[in-house]
Amino acid sequence: MQNLTMAEGEEVKNKQVVLKDYVSGFPKETDMVLKTGTMRLKVPRGVKGVVVKNLYLSCDPYMRARMSELAEGYVKAFTPGSPIAGLGVAKVLDSGDPSFNIGDLVWGLTGWEEYNLITATETIQNSTNRCAAFVLHRTSPTPSYVEDIAEGLESAPAALFGLFSGRNIGKQVVVVARE
């Protein structure tokens, strides 16, 4: 095995919640699968994006519509075979965008996976923005206004299904990592 240079970035295992296929009717936990891939923790040269470690993921009712193949809608359908996406809180591990620094806590649209390369940085904001969907304390990435918390990416499909089935009402958050 060759040594990686700092420019190439460390390659890590990356667990992901993937939609198996479009859902017709009521979604079930089995419509999603947990897969493990790999990812480099470095923004590719020339890309104006950020590599993040997801800390919290939000389970939201609008995600149900994204699991169906939509002709039209206010949100784009998920792509079967790819990680689903939603709002989350993450820590920047590498940045090719001058608006974001390593160590910044950000919130916005992210993939349901441990690590994510976000190239559409206009979909995320620094946690200091007062309009954040999650209210973060400056000293710790702890969300406020949480009604139910699920631990671990492995619990994400059950947490999302619980939101749809009425097991949890209100805000459901999945803790991916505590830093």
UniProtKB/TrEMBL annotation:
Pfam families, sorted: ADH_N_2 (PF16884)
Alphabetically ordered keywords of this record: NADP, Oxidoreductase
Taxonomy of the source species: Eukaryota, Viridiplantae, Streptophyta, Embryophyta, Tracheophyta
Entries under Gene3D superfamilies matching the protein: Medium-chain alcohol dehydrogenases, catalytic domain (3.90.180.10)
Family, similarity comment: Belongs to the NADP-dependent oxidoreductase L4BD family.
Extent of the signal sequence: none
Listed name of the protein: Oxidoreductase N-terminal domain-containing protein
Cited InterPro entries: ADH_N_2, GroES-like_sf, MDR_fam
GO molecular function per UniProt: 2-alkenal reductase [NAD(P)H] activity
Residues annotated as domain Oxidoreductase N-terminal: 15-122
